[in-house]
Amino acid sequence: MSVRRLAPQEVQPQHFAWSAASQEKVAFWLGKYPQARRQSAVIPLLWLAQKQEGWVSEPALRAIADQLGMPYIRVYEVATFYTMFHLAPVGRHHLQVCGTTPCMLRGSEDLKALCRSRIGPAFQVSDDGLFSWEEMECLGACANAPVVAIHDYYHEDLTAESLGALMDDLAAGRNVTPGSAIGRATSAPEGGPAVLLDESLYDGHLAAPVKLPNLPEPA
Amino acid sequence: MRCLDGRIRTWGRCGPGDRDGDRGMAKIIVDDVEVDVPADYTLLQACEAAGAEIPRFCYHERLSIAGNCRMCLVEVKGAPKPVASCAQQVRDQRPGPNGEPPVVVTKSDKVKAARNGVMEFLLINHPLDCPICDQGGECDLQDQAMAYGRATSRYDENKRAVEEKFMGPLVKTVMTRCIQCTRCVRFATEVAGVPELGAIGRGEDMEITTYLEAALSSELSANVVDLCPVGALTSKPYAFNARPWELKKTETVDVMDALGSAIRIDARGPEVLRALPRVNEEINEEWLSDKSRHAVDGLRRQRLDRPYLRKDGKLAAVAWPEALGAFAQRLKGDPARIGAIAGDLVEAEAMKALLDLLRGLGVANTDCRQDGAAIGTSGQRGEYLFNTSIMGLEEADAILLVGTNPRVEAPVLNARIRKSWLQGALKLVGSVGEAVDLTYPAEVLGSGPATLEELAKGKGGFMKVFMEAERPVIIVGMGALARADGAAVLKLAAEIGMKAKVVREGWNGWNVLHTAAGRVAGLDMGFVPGPGGLATAAMLAPGALDTLILLGADEVAAPASTFTVYLGSHGDAGAQSADLILPVGAYTEIAGTWTNTEGRVQQGRRAIFPKGEAREGWAVFRAVSALAGSVLPYDSLEALRARLMADAPVFGGLDYAPGAATPLDLRLVGTAGQVERTPFASPVRDFYLTNPIARASEVMAQCSALAASRAATPALVAAE
C-alpha cells in the first residue's frame, strides 16, 4: 500500500463523458437504486469509468459526483480507498502483483523483480505503452500463490519464467488463459489428488441407507 | 430539540421520537453508582451523568458519532471485550440475570490497560514535537498521554510522515500530527454544511484533506481548529505567537455581527492575540464565525491613538483639551443644525452619553441606523427583535427569509437553522431575495417586494404550507428594510406574518435579523430622531447640518460642507473625511453593554487598555458636556449604567432574551405604502470586510481575496 494521489494536472484530460456503451451500463446501475440513494452506484460508476478510459481521471470523479449528487470529496475518498481504481494512466496490460505474506513466501519477490526489470518501477508505464505494474495487498487467492491479476483475471502459481512467458503472450497479442500456470484445477493439489484415491470411495456403497435409532415410526 | 426533561438537546443525541415524549428512561450502574438516564444516551453520556470521566478524541457532543479513536473504552459486565462507550446506547445494554440494571466499569485495571494500549497505538505515528507545536498546553492528546501514556516508546520503526495540506489562510496544517479522529470532516459536513473535507486513502495512509486542496468555503471554517484534539489543525494567524499560559483571558462579547456571541479574548500585554468562542447554548453553542475569530489582528492596525483636528485642510495631532474645546465650540451652535449618527459596533454606554448630551442641548437629529433601516420608531420593542430567539429556531417548522442571507449576516445563526433542518424539525424554508447557497435547501420564491405582495395575499404553494405551519418563522433582514421603501416592505412582511399567525400563544415567529451589534441597544434607548429631528439620510444631505457627530459610523459619507466629528477606534472611512477625530477604544478595550438581535443585553469586559490616548466613548462625552455647558449627571460607568437602566428598564435584564414574552401587535408594524421593483440585496456584500476592525485586518483581507477568487472561477463545489 502506498499513499494514493490523483495524477498530476498535465496528465489529466480536460473532460470526461460517458461513451454510448457505458451510458447503457450506467443506466442499468442507476436503475438499481432509488433516486434518493443513487450515490450507492458510486463504485460501479467509478469502475465503468475505469473500464472506459483505462483509469479514473479527475474530470471523471467530478462527472460522477455531479451525476450522483455527491460532494466531490466523497467520490475522491472512495476512489482513493480502493486500490482497484487506477488514479493515473496504466499500460494496456496492468499487472497487479500480490505481495502479501503467502505470495511472498511462494516467490512474489521474483515476480516483482521481473516486473521491475521488464517494465520499470511500479506505476510507470513501459516505453511501448504495453505494460505497467503495481504491488497489491492480499488478493485472496493464497492457496494458489503467487498470484498476479491482469485485467479482471487471476493468473496463479506463477514463477518468474511463467510470468515472463505470460507477458510475452500479452505483448504478442495472443490470448492467455487465466488460472493456474501449472495446470492445477482451481486449488486442488499440484499434479492431481494425493489422497482419497481409492475408487471404491466413490461407487456409492458408503451412501447406503442407514437405520437411525430414533426415527419416528412411519404412520 | 426539547426532550422530556425540558432541556434543549443538540442533534445527534436524540431521535425524532423525543419530541413526542416517548423517550423513556433507563437505569444503569456506573462504577457502583446507579443513575437513571434517557435510554438513548450513549454509555459515555451515562458515565458522565454518573460522574465518571471518560477520555475521548473522536467523540464530540455536537457532531455525529464516529467511534474510531477507541479511547473511550469501558468494561460492560457480560461483554467479552471492552466496548467503545461513545458508540453504544444505554437501551442496548443487557440487564443482569435477574433484571438488574446493566453494569459499566470505568476504572478497572482492564479498562486502564485497554486505554493504555489505544494510547500507545495513537502515539506510534504521532510526532514527539510538542515543544514546537502550537497546540502544546491545550492539547487533548498531551493531556491524556499524561494519564494513559507509557513512559517510553516501544516502537523502533520510522514514524509515518504526511504531506502538508492547504486549507486557506485561517487553518494551518501539520498533518503528520493527525490522529484521524475525523471531527473536522464531520464538522464541515454537518455543522458548516460544506462537505469539502474528507479522509482519503486508507489504513496507515489515511489523510485528511479538501478536494484538490481548496480552502474551505465556509464562514465557520476556523472552528475546525478548536475541534482538532491534537496540533494537526492550528490557527494560522496565531502560529508561533504565544503559549496558552502566557495569555490573559477575558470573557466578553463579540460585536462582529448582531448575535453577541460569547467569546474569550486572549491577550498578552497590550496585544489581543486571539478570540475564541465560549460555550453559550442560547447563542453560539460553541461555534464562532471566522470574522469574529480572526478580525482581531485588525485591532493592531490603522488605530487612532490621539486626537486630530483639521487645520488649514490638513489633520494635525492635537492634545485632548484642544480637541474637546473645539468639540464643545461646535456643540454651542444651533441645535437644529447639529446631528449625530451612531455606528454599528458602538456600545450602549457611549450612545447613551451622546444621546443625553445632545438631548440636553436640544438636539433632535440623532440616529443609530446608519444604513437607514426603516425600523425601531413605532414604540413596539418586539417589532425590531429576533423574537423566536436563536435557540427557538430549533423548534421552527417553516421559515420565510425576507431580504436576508443569514449565511453571511450571521453565520452562527445560519448553522442553527441548518441544525434545525438536519434534526428534521424544520421542513420548509422559503426565501425572498438573492438566490444563495444557505447550506440547507431553501426555495427562492422571488427576489423583491412584488413577491411579498403575492405572499401577503396568500398566493402560491409556499404560503399554503406556511400558513398551516405550527411554528412558522419570518426573518426580515436589513436587505429588505434598509431601502427607501423599507417601511412599506416591513408592512408587507407583517401582513404575511398575520396571515400565517406567526405571533400566537406561546410562540413568536416575528424576527428581525440585525447586522449591527449596537443597533438594538440604540433603538432600545431611543437613539432615533427626536421630535422634528432628521434621520440618517436627511442628516447627510449637503447643507442640512453644520456639525455632524459620527460615533463609530464609517458606512456613511458626510458632506464636505459639514464639520464632522468622528469618534472611533480605526482610521477608516469616517476618520478620513472628519474635521475632528477623537480616539475611543475598540470593543476589546472597553467595558460596554451590547444588546444582540434577540434583545439580549450582555456586558463585555475590557481585555486590554485603549491604544495611546484613546478613551472610553462615554468619558469623552462626559468631559465635553462640562465644556459645552450641559453637564451629564454621571461620573462613573456605574452611574451611567444606572441611568441607562432607569431610562430604559430593558437594560436591567442581563443575558436574557425576552423571546415570546415580548408583546407584539403585527398590525402596527410598518407603514403601508408604494413598494419599488428593485430586488432585495443583503447589506453584507463582502462577509470579511463589514466593519472598520475587519477592514484593518490583514487576515480578513486574505480571506476576502480568496473568496473573491473563488467567486471568479467556476466553483469546485458539488452540485447538490
End-to-end C-alpha gap of chain B: 26 Å
Radius of gyration of chain A: 23 Å
Number of strands of chain B: 28
**Helix content range of the residues of chain A, please?**
25-40%
Low-confidence stretches of chain B: 1-21, 716-720
Total number of helices of chain A: 7
The CATH class of the largest domain in chain A = Alpha Beta
Notes on the protein architecture:
The complex is a heterodimer of chains A (219) and B (720). Chain A starts with 19 loop residues before the first helix and ends in a 39-residue tail after the last strand. Chain A has seven helices and five strands. With 219 residues, chain A is an alpha/beta fold. In chain A, 34% of the residues lie in helices and 10% in strands. Chain A folds into two domains: 9-81, Arc Repressor Mutant, subunit A (Orthogonal Bundle), CATH 1.10.10; 93-180, Glutaredoxin. Chain A has a five-stranded mixed sheet, covered by helices on one side. In chain A, α3 crosses α4. The model of chain A has no long low-confidence stretch (mean pLDDT 93). With 720 residues, chain B is of the alpha/beta class. In chain B, 26% of the residues lie in helices and 17% in strands. Chain B is built from 21 helices and 28 strands. In chain B, the strands form eight sheets. In chain B, strands 14-13-26-25-24-15-16 form a seven-stranded mixed sheet, with helices on one face. A five-stranded mixed sheet of chain B has the order 2-1-5-3-4, sandwiched between helices. Chain B has a five-stranded parallel sheet with strand order 19-18-17-20-23. In chain B, α7 (320-331) packs across α18 (617-628), α8 packs parallel to α18 (617-628) and α11 runs parallel beside α14. The longest helix of chain B has 16 residues, at 109-124. Chain B is globular, with a radius of gyration of 28 Å. Chain B starts with 24 loop residues before the first strand and ends in an 8-residue tail after the last helix.
